[in-house]
Amino acid sequence: MTSNFSLKNKVAIVTGANTGLGQAIAIALAAAGADVALVGRTPPKDTEQQIRALGGQSAVVMADLSSSKDVASIVEQSESALGPVDILVNNAGIIRRQDALEFAEDDWDDVMATNLKVPFFLAQAVARSMVAGNRGGKIINVASLLSFQGGIRVASYTSSKSGLAGLTRLLANEWAGKGIAVNAIVPGYFATNNTVQLRQDPDRNRDILARIPAGRWGEPSDLGGAAVFLASPAADYVHGAMIPVDGGWLAR
Question: E strands within the chain?
């Protein structure tokens, strides 16, 4: 790996790093040389083991990402274990499915808190540390195709991911001059826990695959390259970008 893409001596926080997209991103950052704080409610044992096998270093930070109450502690624990944070990946997210006519207020609030509120306040806390240390850094939000499209039966998810796209651009505007690059990865349809229902529905699975030029569901490891790029010096002049990793879905 060339030095321009190296993350050696960098410290990253990745939320929701125990499985799926977050796990793949954490492993990719570690493979590029970063030390990674793995944040979530479930112990990320498999992620730890894979990072260790790469010769990398990680730290586990247990936190409830459905509420902003743990935000300060996440940053404090990460920096205590690994050093000042250079990279934040806001990956953790949840989804609730129901017809809009029947959508429950609790399902709205839960999704908006996890997918939009907490990412903002965690980005704020990390950015404050970066500014105080006069070191700059990279913040990467994990958005969605539904940051651009409406979707079906996922009112709060679509709203949260559309909001996250706008937030990414706003923070890029405010923080680029402080040396903090804020961008987003836009995953397409990936084989994760969030898409089990879709993949098990023969009609929906068929229709989705027919729309993807690459002809397959994404694998979590497909996100690694985009994450390393946005976290690396190679992306120092990239601000407010939304990078699709979608098998060509948005180009269709």
Answer: 11-15, 35-40, 58-62, 87-90, 137-142, 180-187, 242-245
CB 37 within 8 A of CB 13: yes
Helices 224-231 + 20-31 axis angle, to 10: 50
Q: Tokens 């706003």: give the residue.
A: 170
Contact 65, 45 (CB under 8 A): no
d(CA 213, CA 114): 31
pTM exceeds 0.85 for this model: yes
Please give the domain boundaries of the chain with CATH numbers for all domains: 3-238 (3.40.50.720)
DSSP assigned state of 155: H
Q: What is the pLDDT of residues 197-238, one digit of tens each?
A: 889 999 999 999 999 999 999 999 999 999 999 999 999 999
Could you list the active site residues?
157
Report d(CA 26, CA 82) in Å as an integer.
Answer: 14
Residue with tokens 């796209």: 165
Distances (CA, A) of 171 to 59, 81, 165, 168: 27, 27, 10, 5
Neighbouring CB atoms inside 10 A of 246's CB total: 21
> Do 83 and 76 touch, CB atoms closer than 8 A?
no
Q: Which of 177, 176, 250 is nearest to 213 (CA)?
A: 250
CA–CA dist 82, 164 (Å, integer):
28
Contact in structure between 34 and 57 (CB atoms under 8 Å): no
Residue where the block lists tokens 């704080």 = 37
